[in-house]
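COMPLEX REQUEST
Ligand: adenosine-5'-triphosphate
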Amino acid sequence: MSALPNPAAGPTAGRATGPARRALRGVLPPLLLLAAWQAASTGGLADPRLLPPLERVAAAAWTQLTAGNLRDSLLRDLGGFALGASAGLGLGLLLGLSPLAGRLLRPSFDALKGIAVFAWIPLIAIWFGFGEASKLAFIALAAFTPVVLNVDEGVRGVPAPLREVAAALAWTPWQRLTRLVLPAALPSILTGLQLGLIHAWLATVGAEYFLAKGSGLGGVLIEGRDRFDMAQVLLGVLLLGGVGYALNRLADLAARRLTRWRTA
Amino acid sequence: MSAPGDVAARGRVELRGVGKRFRVDGRELTVLDGIDLVIEPGEFVTILGASGCGKSTLLRLLAGLEHPDAGEVRHDGRAIAGTGLERGLVFQEPRLFPWLTVAENVAAALLNAPLDADAKRRAVAGHIAMVGLGGFERAYPHQLSGGMAQRVAIARGLVNRPGLLLLDEPFGALDAFTREQLQDELRALQAREGFTTVLVTHDVEEALYLGDRVVVMSPRPGRIRAVIAVPLGQPRDRADELLGRLHHAARAALRDTLPLAA
Ligand SMILES: Nc1ncnc2c1ncn2[C@@H]1O[C@H](COP(=O)(O)OP(=O)(O)OP(=O)(O)O)[C@@H](O)[C@H]1O
Ligand SMILES: [Mg+2]
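STATUS: Structure written out below.
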Protein backbone atom coordinates (compact mmCIF):
# COMPACT_ATOMS: atom_id res chain seq x y z
CA MET A 1 0.00 0.00 0.00
CA SER A 2 2.85 2.39 0.74
CA ALA A 3 4.07 1.98 -2.83
CA LEU A 4 0.91 3.64 -4.10
CA PRO A 5 0.96 7.34 -4.90
CA ASN A 6 -0.22 9.48 -2.03
CA PRO A 7 -3.65 10.65 -3.19
CA ALA A 8 -3.29 13.87 -1.22
CA ALA A 9 -0.26 14.97 -3.24
CA GLY A 10 -0.97 17.09 -6.28
CA PRO A 11 0.32 16.49 -9.80
CA THR A 12 3.97 15.58 -9.81
CA ALA A 13 6.48 18.33 -10.45
CA GLY A 14 7.65 16.69 -13.65
CA ARG A 15 4.27 17.06 -15.27
CA ALA A 16 4.03 20.81 -14.70
CA THR A 17 6.69 21.73 -17.27
CA GLY A 18 5.31 19.38 -19.92
CA PRO A 19 2.19 21.31 -20.93
CA ALA A 20 4.04 24.65 -20.79
CA ARG A 21 6.68 23.44 -23.18
CA ARG A 22 4.06 21.91 -25.42
CA ALA A 23 2.09 25.17 -25.48
CA LEU A 24 5.28 27.02 -26.41
CA ARG A 25 5.86 24.60 -29.27
CA GLY A 26 2.28 25.26 -30.35
CA VAL A 27 2.73 29.01 -30.75
CA LEU A 28 5.98 28.68 -32.69
CA PRO A 29 4.46 28.16 -36.18
CA PRO A 30 2.13 31.20 -35.94
CA LEU A 31 5.06 33.34 -34.75
CA LEU A 32 7.20 32.17 -37.67
CA LEU A 33 4.34 32.92 -40.03
CA LEU A 34 4.04 36.44 -38.63
CA ALA A 35 7.79 36.95 -39.03
CA ALA A 36 7.63 35.76 -42.64
CA TRP A 37 4.68 38.05 -43.23
CA GLN A 38 6.54 41.02 -41.86
CA ALA A 39 9.67 40.19 -43.86
CA ALA A 40 7.65 39.77 -47.06
CA SER A 41 5.75 43.02 -46.75
CA THR A 42 8.68 45.19 -45.63
CA GLY A 43 11.25 43.50 -47.86
CA GLY A 44 9.17 44.33 -50.95
CA LEU A 45 8.42 40.69 -51.77
CA ALA A 46 4.68 41.33 -51.60
CA ASP A 47 2.49 44.25 -52.58
CA PRO A 48 1.90 46.08 -49.26
CA ARG A 49 -1.66 46.82 -50.40
CA LEU A 50 -2.36 43.08 -50.48
CA LEU A 51 -0.16 42.16 -47.54
CA PRO A 52 0.18 45.21 -45.30
CA PRO A 53 2.99 45.31 -42.74
CA LEU A 54 2.13 44.35 -39.18
CA GLU A 55 2.29 47.86 -37.78
CA ARG A 56 -0.59 48.90 -40.04
CA VAL A 57 -2.61 45.92 -38.81
CA ALA A 58 -1.78 46.95 -35.25
CA ALA A 59 -2.92 50.50 -35.97
CA ALA A 60 -6.18 49.15 -37.38
CA ALA A 61 -6.53 46.99 -34.27
CA TRP A 62 -6.37 50.04 -32.08
CA THR A 63 -9.14 51.82 -34.02
CA GLN A 64 -11.39 48.80 -34.10
CA LEU A 65 -10.91 47.81 -30.50
CA THR A 66 -11.64 51.30 -29.28
CA ALA A 67 -14.74 51.29 -31.48
CA GLY A 68 -15.91 48.27 -29.46
CA ASN A 69 -16.31 45.82 -32.33
CA LEU A 70 -14.58 42.96 -30.55
CA ARG A 71 -16.65 43.53 -27.44
CA ASP A 72 -19.89 43.60 -29.43
CA SER A 73 -19.06 40.34 -31.17
CA LEU A 74 -18.12 38.64 -27.93
CA LEU A 75 -21.26 39.76 -26.13
CA ARG A 76 -23.40 38.62 -29.06
CA ASP A 77 -21.56 35.30 -29.14
CA LEU A 78 -21.97 34.63 -25.44
CA GLY A 79 -25.63 35.72 -25.47
CA GLY A 80 -26.48 33.42 -28.35
CA PHE A 81 -24.44 30.61 -26.84
CA ALA A 82 -26.21 30.95 -23.48
CA LEU A 83 -29.60 30.74 -25.18
CA GLY A 84 -28.73 27.84 -27.45
CA ALA A 85 -26.79 25.88 -24.84
CA SER A 86 -29.55 26.10 -22.22
CA ALA A 87 -32.18 25.01 -24.73
CA GLY A 88 -29.81 22.26 -25.88
CA LEU A 89 -29.22 21.06 -22.33
CA GLY A 90 -32.96 20.91 -21.79
CA LEU A 91 -33.76 18.97 -24.95
CA GLY A 92 -30.71 16.73 -24.57
CA LEU A 93 -31.75 15.78 -21.04
CA LEU A 94 -35.32 15.16 -22.17
CA LEU A 95 -34.19 12.92 -25.05
CA GLY A 96 -31.73 11.04 -22.88
CA LEU A 97 -33.92 10.62 -19.80
CA SER A 98 -37.30 9.87 -21.31
CA PRO A 99 -37.35 6.83 -23.58
CA LEU A 100 -40.67 8.01 -25.02
CA ALA A 101 -39.40 11.49 -25.84
CA GLY A 102 -36.25 9.94 -27.25
CA ARG A 103 -38.10 7.60 -29.58
CA LEU A 104 -40.49 10.37 -30.58
CA LEU A 105 -38.08 13.24 -31.16
CA ARG A 106 -34.65 11.77 -31.88
CA PRO A 107 -35.37 10.89 -35.55
CA SER A 108 -36.63 14.41 -36.29
CA PHE A 109 -33.67 15.89 -34.54
CA ASP A 110 -31.27 13.65 -36.45
CA ALA A 111 -32.85 14.85 -39.70
CA LEU A 112 -32.64 18.50 -38.65
CA LYS A 113 -29.02 18.32 -37.62
CA GLY A 114 -28.10 17.30 -41.18
CA ILE A 115 -29.07 20.74 -42.42
CA ALA A 116 -26.07 23.05 -42.67
CA VAL A 117 -26.55 25.81 -40.17
CA PHE A 118 -26.12 28.56 -42.78
CA ALA A 119 -29.12 27.21 -44.66
CA TRP A 120 -31.24 28.60 -41.85
CA ILE A 121 -30.19 32.18 -42.49
CA PRO A 122 -32.94 33.09 -44.97
CA LEU A 123 -35.63 31.61 -42.73
CA ILE A 124 -34.25 33.27 -39.65
CA ALA A 125 -34.03 36.60 -41.46
CA ILE A 126 -37.69 36.32 -42.42
CA TRP A 127 -38.84 35.21 -38.98
CA PHE A 128 -36.73 37.51 -36.85
CA GLY A 129 -35.94 40.38 -39.23
CA PHE A 130 -32.47 41.72 -39.82
CA GLY A 131 -31.80 43.04 -36.36
CA GLU A 132 -30.06 41.75 -33.26
CA ALA A 133 -32.77 39.15 -32.61
CA SER A 134 -32.05 37.20 -35.77
CA LYS A 135 -28.31 37.22 -35.08
CA LEU A 136 -28.88 35.84 -31.60
CA ALA A 137 -31.28 33.23 -32.95
CA PHE A 138 -28.75 32.10 -35.52
CA ILE A 139 -25.91 31.85 -32.99
CA ALA A 140 -28.19 30.04 -30.55
CA LEU A 141 -29.17 27.54 -33.23
CA ALA A 142 -25.54 26.86 -34.06
CA ALA A 143 -24.72 26.15 -30.40
CA PHE A 144 -27.92 24.16 -29.85
CA THR A 145 -27.26 21.13 -32.07
CA PRO A 146 -23.95 19.84 -30.69
CA VAL A 147 -25.16 20.38 -27.13
CA VAL A 148 -28.33 18.33 -27.68
CA LEU A 149 -26.42 15.52 -29.37
CA ASN A 150 -23.74 15.18 -26.72
CA VAL A 151 -26.02 15.61 -23.71
CA ASP A 152 -28.39 12.97 -25.09
CA GLU A 153 -25.52 10.60 -25.76
CA GLY A 154 -23.95 11.20 -22.35
CA VAL A 155 -27.19 10.63 -20.48
CA ARG A 156 -27.94 7.41 -22.35
CA GLY A 157 -24.38 6.22 -21.81
CA VAL A 158 -24.60 5.97 -18.01
CA PRO A 159 -23.12 2.52 -17.28
CA ALA A 160 -25.79 -0.05 -16.38
CA PRO A 161 -23.68 -1.49 -13.52
CA LEU A 162 -23.68 1.91 -11.82
CA ARG A 163 -27.43 2.25 -12.38
CA GLU A 164 -27.77 -1.00 -10.45
CA VAL A 165 -25.66 0.35 -7.62
CA ALA A 166 -27.91 3.41 -7.41
CA ALA A 167 -30.92 1.06 -7.31
CA ALA A 168 -29.33 -1.11 -4.63
CA LEU A 169 -28.62 2.00 -2.55
CA ALA A 170 -32.31 2.96 -2.88
CA TRP A 171 -31.58 6.38 -4.37
CA THR A 172 -34.57 8.52 -5.22
CA PRO A 173 -35.12 9.60 -8.86
CA TRP A 174 -33.75 13.03 -8.01
CA GLN A 175 -30.65 11.53 -6.40
CA ARG A 176 -30.12 9.36 -9.44
CA LEU A 177 -30.32 12.39 -11.71
CA THR A 178 -28.01 14.63 -9.72
CA ARG A 179 -25.60 12.03 -8.33
CA LEU A 180 -25.46 9.46 -11.10
CA VAL A 181 -26.76 10.64 -14.47
CA LEU A 182 -25.33 14.16 -14.50
CA PRO A 183 -21.86 13.26 -13.17
CA ALA A 184 -21.62 10.25 -15.48
CA ALA A 185 -22.73 12.36 -18.44
CA LEU A 186 -20.59 15.34 -17.46
CA PRO A 187 -17.66 14.61 -19.82
CA SER A 188 -20.11 14.32 -22.72
CA ILE A 189 -22.03 17.39 -21.63
CA LEU A 190 -18.81 19.40 -21.47
CA THR A 191 -17.79 18.17 -24.92
CA GLY A 192 -21.17 19.35 -26.21
CA LEU A 193 -20.80 22.75 -24.58
CA GLN A 194 -17.30 23.16 -25.94
CA LEU A 195 -18.43 22.29 -29.47
CA GLY A 196 -21.38 24.61 -28.99
CA LEU A 197 -19.01 27.40 -28.03
CA ILE A 198 -16.94 26.92 -31.18
CA HIS A 199 -19.99 26.70 -33.41
CA ALA A 200 -21.47 29.78 -31.77
CA TRP A 201 -18.31 31.77 -32.47
CA LEU A 202 -18.26 30.73 -36.12
CA ALA A 203 -21.94 31.59 -36.34
CA THR A 204 -21.36 34.98 -34.73
CA VAL A 205 -19.17 36.10 -37.59
CA GLY A 206 -21.48 34.40 -40.07
CA ALA A 207 -24.45 36.26 -38.65
CA GLU A 208 -22.59 39.56 -38.70
CA TYR A 209 -21.40 38.93 -42.22
CA PHE A 210 -24.56 37.60 -43.84
CA LEU A 211 -27.27 39.32 -41.85
CA ALA A 212 -27.59 43.09 -41.80
CA LYS A 213 -24.35 44.89 -41.18
CA GLY A 214 -23.69 46.52 -37.88
CA SER A 215 -21.08 46.49 -35.17
CA GLY A 216 -18.87 43.47 -34.58
CA LEU A 217 -16.00 41.68 -36.27
CA GLY A 218 -18.18 40.72 -39.22
CA GLY A 219 -18.75 44.41 -39.82
CA VAL A 220 -15.00 45.00 -39.60
CA LEU A 221 -14.46 42.41 -42.35
CA ILE A 222 -17.17 43.85 -44.60
CA GLU A 223 -15.95 47.40 -44.15
CA GLY A 224 -12.35 46.36 -44.80
CA ARG A 225 -13.36 44.53 -47.95
CA ASP A 226 -15.48 47.44 -49.23
CA ARG A 227 -12.69 49.96 -48.61
CA PHE A 228 -10.05 47.55 -49.88
CA ASP A 229 -8.29 47.97 -46.57
CA MET A 230 -6.35 44.73 -46.29
CA ALA A 231 -4.93 45.68 -42.89
CA GLN A 232 -8.46 45.78 -41.53
CA VAL A 233 -9.49 42.50 -43.21
CA LEU A 234 -6.41 40.72 -41.93
CA LEU A 235 -7.00 42.15 -38.49
CA GLY A 236 -10.53 40.73 -38.59
CA VAL A 237 -9.21 37.31 -39.53
CA LEU A 238 -6.53 37.40 -36.82
CA LEU A 239 -9.04 38.41 -34.17
CA LEU A 240 -11.45 35.66 -35.23
CA GLY A 241 -8.75 33.06 -34.97
CA GLY A 242 -7.40 34.42 -31.70
CA VAL A 243 -10.78 34.62 -29.99
CA GLY A 244 -11.79 31.17 -31.26
CA TYR A 245 -8.57 29.74 -29.90
CA ALA A 246 -8.95 31.51 -26.57
CA LEU A 247 -12.56 30.36 -26.12
CA ASN A 248 -11.57 26.80 -26.88
CA ARG A 249 -8.69 26.89 -24.41
CA LEU A 250 -10.92 28.34 -21.70
CA ALA A 251 -13.53 25.64 -22.30
CA ASP A 252 -10.79 23.02 -22.20
CA LEU A 253 -9.46 24.28 -18.89
CA ALA A 254 -12.93 24.48 -17.36
CA ALA A 255 -13.73 20.95 -18.55
CA ARG A 256 -10.53 19.59 -17.12
CA ARG A 257 -11.17 21.24 -13.76
CA LEU A 258 -14.70 19.90 -13.61
CA THR A 259 -13.73 16.32 -14.41
CA ARG A 260 -10.69 16.16 -12.18
CA TRP A 261 -11.75 12.72 -10.93
CA ARG A 262 -10.68 11.20 -14.23
CA THR A 263 -7.04 12.13 -13.78
CA ALA A 264 -6.73 13.87 -10.42
CA MET B 1 -35.06 1.01 8.84
CA SER B 2 -34.47 0.35 12.49
CA ALA B 3 -31.58 0.93 14.83
CA PRO B 4 -28.76 -1.61 14.89
CA GLY B 5 -29.34 -4.17 17.59
CA ASP B 6 -32.82 -5.33 16.72
CA VAL B 7 -31.80 -6.51 13.26
CA ALA B 8 -31.37 -10.02 14.65
CA ALA B 9 -35.13 -10.30 14.73
CA ARG B 10 -35.28 -9.66 11.00
CA GLY B 11 -33.69 -11.09 7.91
CA ARG B 12 -35.65 -14.27 7.26
CA VAL B 13 -35.34 -15.36 3.65
CA GLU B 14 -37.51 -17.89 1.83
CA LEU B 15 -36.96 -19.20 -1.67
CA ARG B 16 -39.76 -21.49 -2.89
CA GLY B 17 -39.48 -23.30 -6.21
CA VAL B 18 -37.49 -20.41 -7.67
CA GLY B 19 -36.65 -20.59 -11.36
CA LYS B 20 -34.95 -18.06 -13.61
CA ARG B 21 -34.45 -18.14 -17.36
CA PHE B 22 -32.55 -15.86 -19.69
CA ARG B 23 -32.73 -15.56 -23.44
CA VAL B 24 -29.24 -15.91 -24.82
CA ASP B 25 -28.71 -15.74 -28.57
CA GLY B 26 -32.38 -16.53 -29.23
CA ARG B 27 -32.40 -19.59 -26.99
CA GLU B 28 -33.95 -20.00 -23.56
CA LEU B 29 -31.33 -20.73 -20.94
CA THR B 30 -32.53 -22.03 -17.59
CA VAL B 31 -30.12 -20.52 -15.10
CA LEU B 32 -31.91 -21.46 -11.86
CA ASP B 33 -34.35 -24.31 -11.40
CA GLY B 34 -36.41 -25.40 -8.39
CA ILE B 35 -34.44 -23.53 -5.75
CA ASP B 36 -35.90 -24.17 -2.28
CA LEU B 37 -34.11 -22.63 0.65
CA VAL B 38 -35.07 -21.02 3.95
CA ILE B 39 -32.52 -18.84 5.70
CA GLU B 40 -33.22 -18.04 9.34
CA PRO B 41 -32.69 -14.57 10.83
CA GLY B 42 -29.09 -14.04 11.82
CA GLU B 43 -27.85 -17.01 9.85
CA PHE B 44 -24.67 -16.84 7.75
CA VAL B 45 -25.17 -18.88 4.59
CA THR B 46 -22.51 -19.34 1.96
CA ILE B 47 -23.32 -20.35 -1.60
CA LEU B 48 -20.67 -22.48 -3.25
CA GLY B 49 -20.57 -23.42 -6.90
CA ALA B 50 -18.57 -23.50 -10.10
CA SER B 51 -18.45 -20.53 -12.42
CA GLY B 52 -21.67 -19.98 -14.32
CA CYS B 53 -23.93 -22.03 -12.08
CA GLY B 54 -26.15 -19.05 -11.29
CA LYS B 55 -24.75 -17.83 -7.96
CA SER B 56 -24.78 -14.17 -8.94
CA THR B 57 -28.25 -14.57 -10.43
CA LEU B 58 -29.52 -16.04 -7.16
CA LEU B 59 -28.04 -13.13 -5.22
CA ARG B 60 -29.52 -10.61 -7.65
CA LEU B 61 -32.95 -12.19 -7.11
CA LEU B 62 -32.50 -11.71 -3.36
CA ALA B 63 -31.40 -8.12 -3.89
CA GLY B 64 -34.46 -7.39 -6.01
CA LEU B 65 -32.46 -6.57 -9.15
CA GLU B 66 -33.97 -9.58 -10.98
CA HIS B 67 -37.38 -11.20 -10.71
CA PRO B 68 -37.99 -14.95 -10.70
CA ASP B 69 -39.78 -16.60 -13.63
CA ALA B 70 -41.10 -19.29 -11.30
CA GLY B 71 -41.64 -19.58 -7.57
CA GLU B 72 -41.24 -16.80 -5.07
CA VAL B 73 -38.57 -15.02 -3.09
CA ARG B 74 -39.55 -13.59 0.29
CA HIS B 75 -37.71 -11.40 2.77
CA ASP B 76 -39.33 -11.20 6.21
CA GLY B 77 -42.51 -12.64 4.78
CA ARG B 78 -42.91 -10.17 1.96
CA ALA B 79 -42.27 -10.96 -1.68
CA ILE B 80 -39.20 -9.05 -2.89
CA ALA B 81 -40.49 -6.61 -5.49
CA GLY B 82 -37.41 -4.43 -5.93
CA THR B 83 -34.29 -3.13 -4.27
CA GLY B 84 -34.41 -1.52 -0.84
CA LEU B 85 -32.18 -0.30 1.97
CA GLU B 86 -33.25 -3.28 4.11
CA ARG B 87 -31.02 -5.38 1.84
CA GLY B 88 -27.38 -4.52 1.23
CA LEU B 89 -25.48 -5.80 -1.80
CA VAL B 90 -21.78 -6.03 -2.54
CA PHE B 91 -21.30 -6.80 -6.22
CA GLN B 92 -18.74 -9.12 -7.71
CA GLU B 93 -16.90 -6.06 -9.08
CA PRO B 94 -16.27 -2.91 -6.98
CA ARG B 95 -18.62 -0.69 -9.03
CA LEU B 96 -17.47 2.52 -7.38
CA PHE B 97 -18.62 5.89 -8.67
CA PRO B 98 -15.45 7.19 -10.36
CA TRP B 99 -16.29 10.84 -9.66
CA LEU B 100 -16.60 10.28 -5.91
CA THR B 101 -13.77 9.85 -3.43
CA VAL B 102 -13.46 6.76 -1.26
CA ALA B 103 -15.30 8.47 1.62
CA GLU B 104 -18.02 9.79 -0.70
CA ASN B 105 -18.50 6.37 -2.24
CA VAL B 106 -19.10 4.83 1.17
CA ALA B 107 -21.33 7.73 2.21
CA ALA B 108 -23.39 7.17 -0.94
CA ALA B 109 -24.99 4.20 0.80
CA LEU B 110 -26.20 6.42 3.64
CA LEU B 111 -27.92 9.09 1.55
CA ASN B 112 -31.35 7.92 2.63
CA ALA B 113 -30.39 6.43 5.97
CA PRO B 114 -32.15 7.91 9.01
CA LEU B 115 -28.96 9.18 10.62
CA ASP B 116 -27.76 12.70 11.31
CA ALA B 117 -24.75 14.07 9.45
CA ASP B 118 -22.42 13.45 12.35
CA ALA B 119 -23.43 9.83 12.77
CA LYS B 120 -23.01 9.32 9.03
CA ARG B 121 -19.52 10.78 9.10
CA ARG B 122 -18.55 8.53 11.99
CA ALA B 123 -20.01 5.46 10.30
CA VAL B 124 -18.13 6.21 7.08
CA ALA B 125 -14.81 6.80 8.84
CA GLY B 126 -15.26 3.68 10.97
CA HIS B 127 -15.96 1.43 8.01
CA ILE B 128 -13.10 2.81 5.94
CA ALA B 129 -10.79 2.08 8.86
CA MET B 130 -12.29 -1.38 9.21
CA VAL B 131 -11.36 -2.34 5.65
CA GLY B 132 -7.88 -0.93 6.23
CA LEU B 133 -8.12 2.12 4.01
CA GLY B 134 -7.57 4.83 6.60
CA GLY B 135 -5.67 7.67 4.91
CA PHE B 136 -7.28 7.00 1.52
CA GLU B 137 -10.56 8.77 2.29
CA ARG B 138 -9.95 11.41 -0.35
CA ALA B 139 -8.51 9.17 -3.05
CA TYR B 140 -10.47 8.62 -6.26
CA PRO B 141 -11.22 5.08 -7.48
CA HIS B 142 -8.72 5.27 -10.33
CA GLN B 143 -6.00 5.80 -7.73
CA LEU B 144 -6.80 2.51 -6.00
CA SER B 145 -5.67 -1.02 -6.73
CA GLY B 146 -8.35 -3.57 -7.59
CA GLY B 147 -8.27 -5.04 -4.10
CA MET B 148 -8.49 -1.63 -2.46
CA ALA B 149 -11.48 -0.74 -4.63
CA GLN B 150 -13.22 -3.95 -3.60
CA ARG B 151 -12.59 -3.13 0.06
CA VAL B 152 -14.30 0.22 -0.47
CA ALA B 153 -17.25 -1.65 -1.98
CA ILE B 154 -17.38 -3.91 1.08
CA ALA B 155 -17.37 -0.87 3.37
CA ARG B 156 -20.19 0.60 1.29
CA GLY B 157 -22.22 -2.60 1.60
CA LEU B 158 -21.75 -2.81 5.35
CA VAL B 159 -22.05 0.82 6.39
CA ASN B 160 -25.83 0.81 6.23
CA ARG B 161 -26.25 -2.27 8.48
CA PRO B 162 -29.04 -3.87 6.44
CA GLY B 163 -31.05 -6.71 7.96
CA LEU B 164 -29.93 -8.87 5.07
CA LEU B 165 -26.43 -8.55 3.63
CA LEU B 166 -25.70 -10.07 0.22
CA LEU B 167 -22.08 -10.48 -0.89
CA ASP B 168 -21.01 -11.75 -4.31
CA GLU B 169 -17.48 -13.18 -4.11
CA PRO B 170 -16.43 -10.10 -2.14
CA PHE B 171 -12.92 -11.32 -1.36
CA GLY B 172 -12.10 -12.87 -4.72
CA ALA B 173 -9.79 -10.06 -5.81
CA LEU B 174 -7.85 -9.80 -2.56
CA ASP B 175 -4.50 -11.21 -1.52
CA ALA B 176 -4.61 -14.14 0.90
CA PHE B 177 -3.62 -12.07 3.92
CA THR B 178 -6.18 -9.29 3.40
CA ARG B 179 -8.80 -11.88 2.53
CA GLU B 180 -8.40 -13.72 5.82
CA GLN B 181 -8.38 -10.49 7.73
CA LEU B 182 -11.60 -9.27 6.11
CA GLN B 183 -13.24 -12.66 6.52
CA ASP B 184 -12.58 -12.40 10.25
CA GLU B 185 -13.80 -8.80 10.40
CA LEU B 186 -17.00 -9.66 8.57
CA ARG B 187 -17.66 -12.74 10.67
CA ALA B 188 -17.01 -10.89 13.93
CA LEU B 189 -19.26 -8.03 12.89
CA GLN B 190 -22.00 -10.43 11.85
CA ALA B 191 -21.74 -12.43 15.08
CA ARG B 192 -21.93 -9.18 17.05
CA GLU B 193 -24.84 -7.59 15.21
CA GLY B 194 -26.68 -10.61 13.92
CA PHE B 195 -27.67 -9.53 10.44
CA THR B 196 -28.53 -12.34 8.06
CA THR B 197 -25.75 -12.84 5.53
CA VAL B 198 -25.62 -14.63 2.19
CA LEU B 199 -22.12 -14.84 0.72
CA VAL B 200 -21.36 -16.30 -2.70
CA THR B 201 -17.97 -17.87 -3.27
CA HIS B 202 -16.21 -20.54 -5.27
CA ASP B 203 -13.63 -21.06 -2.56
CA VAL B 204 -14.44 -24.20 -0.51
CA GLU B 205 -12.40 -23.14 2.49
CA GLU B 206 -13.98 -19.73 2.61
CA ALA B 207 -17.47 -21.21 2.33
CA LEU B 208 -16.83 -23.56 5.25
CA TYR B 209 -14.92 -21.12 7.42
CA LEU B 210 -17.64 -18.47 7.20
CA GLY B 211 -20.91 -20.31 6.75
CA ASP B 212 -23.30 -21.72 9.32
CA ARG B 213 -24.51 -23.65 6.29
CA VAL B 214 -22.89 -24.13 2.91
CA VAL B 215 -25.23 -24.42 -0.06
CA VAL B 216 -23.50 -26.32 -2.88
CA MET B 217 -24.92 -25.58 -6.34
CA SER B 218 -24.70 -27.54 -9.58
CA PRO B 219 -24.68 -25.83 -12.96
CA ARG B 220 -26.89 -25.91 -16.08
CA PRO B 221 -29.47 -25.55 -14.75
CA GLY B 222 -28.47 -24.10 -11.40
CA ARG B 223 -29.84 -26.35 -8.67
CA ILE B 224 -29.07 -26.90 -5.02
CA ARG B 225 -26.92 -29.99 -4.91
CA ALA B 226 -26.24 -30.25 -1.19
CA VAL B 227 -26.57 -28.23 1.97
CA ILE B 228 -23.75 -28.77 4.46
CA ALA B 229 -24.25 -27.62 8.03
CA VAL B 230 -21.13 -26.40 9.86
CA PRO B 231 -21.89 -26.94 13.56
CA LEU B 232 -19.15 -24.67 14.86
CA GLY B 233 -19.50 -21.40 16.76
CA GLN B 234 -17.56 -18.20 16.23
CA PRO B 235 -14.70 -17.44 16.16
CA ARG B 236 -13.43 -20.52 14.38
CA ASP B 237 -10.03 -22.05 14.06
CA ARG B 238 -9.04 -22.33 10.41
CA ALA B 239 -7.23 -25.56 11.25
CA ASP B 240 -10.28 -27.10 12.94
CA GLU B 241 -10.45 -30.81 12.27
CA LEU B 242 -14.17 -30.71 11.48
CA LEU B 243 -13.58 -28.09 8.80
CA GLY B 244 -11.06 -30.46 7.24
CA ARG B 245 -13.56 -33.31 7.14
CA LEU B 246 -16.35 -31.11 5.78
CA HIS B 247 -13.89 -29.89 3.17
CA HIS B 248 -13.78 -33.39 1.71
CA ALA B 249 -17.58 -33.63 1.71
CA ALA B 250 -17.95 -30.24 0.03
CA ARG B 251 -15.34 -31.02 -2.59
CA ALA B 252 -17.05 -34.32 -3.35
CA ALA B 253 -20.43 -32.61 -3.75
CA LEU B 254 -18.86 -29.95 -5.93
CA ARG B 255 -17.00 -32.49 -8.06
CA ASP B 256 -20.22 -34.42 -8.69
CA THR B 257 -21.71 -31.24 -10.12
CA LEU B 258 -19.13 -30.92 -12.83
CA PRO B 259 -20.23 -32.39 -16.17
CA LEU B 260 -16.75 -33.83 -16.81
CA ALA B 261 -16.89 -35.94 -13.64
CA ALA B 262 -19.93 -37.91 -14.79
N1 LIG C 1 -28.67 -10.81 -17.84
C1 LIG C 1 -28.37 -12.00 -18.37
N2 LIG C 1 -28.74 -12.31 -19.63
C2 LIG C 1 -28.47 -13.51 -20.15
N3 LIG C 1 -27.82 -14.48 -19.51
C3 LIG C 1 -27.42 -14.26 -18.25
C4 LIG C 1 -27.68 -13.00 -17.63
N4 LIG C 1 -27.18 -13.06 -16.38
C5 LIG C 1 -26.63 -14.29 -16.24
N5 LIG C 1 -26.78 -15.01 -17.37
C6 LIG C 1 -26.33 -16.38 -17.57
O1 LIG C 1 -26.66 -17.13 -16.42
C7 LIG C 1 -25.64 -18.04 -16.10
C8 LIG C 1 -25.26 -17.88 -14.66
O2 LIG C 1 -24.67 -16.61 -14.49
P1 LIG C 1 -24.21 -16.08 -13.08
O3 LIG C 1 -23.59 -14.77 -13.28
O4 LIG C 1 -25.33 -16.17 -12.12
O5 LIG C 1 -23.10 -17.18 -12.71
P2 LIG C 1 -22.15 -17.26 -11.45
O6 LIG C 1 -22.44 -18.54 -10.77
O7 LIG C 1 -22.24 -16.05 -10.64
O8 LIG C 1 -20.71 -17.39 -12.13
P3 LIG C 1 -19.30 -16.74 -11.66
O9 LIG C 1 -18.79 -17.60 -10.54
O10 LIG C 1 -18.44 -16.87 -12.86
O11 LIG C 1 -19.56 -15.35 -11.25
C9 LIG C 1 -24.53 -17.83 -17.09
O12 LIG C 1 -24.59 -18.87 -18.04
C10 LIG C 1 -24.84 -16.50 -17.73
O13 LIG C 1 -24.49 -16.54 -19.08
MG1 LIG D 1 -21.01 -14.46 -10.31
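REMARKS: Chain A has one domain: 60-259. Chain A is about 80% helix and 0% strand.
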